[in-house]
Amino acid sequence: MKCPYCGSEECINKSALNIYLKAVETFLKKYINIKFKYPAVGEVGICKKTGGRIYLCPYCKVPFKAPFLNKGEGHFNCPNCNKTLNVPASNKLVC
Ligand SMILES: [Zn+2]
Ligand SMILES: [Zn+2]
């Protein structure tokens, strides 16, 4: 899996990635039939060269750059597969 910023494999945090994939698998099974309930993207590392956060889509499992988010907007679309995703919880806490 390559960093979406610099293309290096080094930037992805493998343990964070594994934890996220397990958690999201449970989520997808549980909420598959519930509308308006979206899985949060995973934070799977920070680029060592650019300092950018690396996010992972739970559907297509492609890492991508932190999206530009409008204030008050709780979700966005994956740049790869266009599914609706929630922002990570850590971002919501920032005021
Ligand atoms: Zn990188
Ligand atoms: Zn996707």
Summarize the structure.
With 95 residues, the protein is of the alpha+beta class. Helix content is 23%, strand content 19%. The protein starts with 13 loop residues before the first helix and ends with a helix.
Structure description:
The chain has 95 residues and is an alpha+beta fold. It has one domain (14-92). 23% of the residues lie in helices and 19% in strands. It is built from 2 helices and 5 strands. The chain has helices spanning 14-31, 89-92; strands at residues 42-46, 53-56, 63-65, 75-77, 84-86. The strands form 2 sheets. It has a 3-stranded antiparallel β-sheet. Strands 4-5 form a two-stranded antiparallel ribbon. One zinc ion binds at residues 3, 5-6, 8, 11, 47-49.
β content, as a range? 15-25%
Radius of gyration: 13 Å
Cα-to-Cα separation, first versus last residue: 32 Å
For the secondary structure, the number of strands is 5
Number of domains: 1
The parts where pLDDT drops under 50 for at least 5 residues are 91-95
Cross-sheet strand order for the largest sheet: 1-2-3
Structural class by sheet pairing and helices: alpha+beta
Molecules bound to protein: zinc ion
Shape: globular
Mean pLDDT: 86
User: Counting H and I runs of at least 4 residues, what is the number of helices?
Assistant: 2
Largest sheet: 3 strands, antiparallel
**Portion of residues within helices:** 10-25%
Question: Element order, helices and strands?
Answer: HEEEEEH
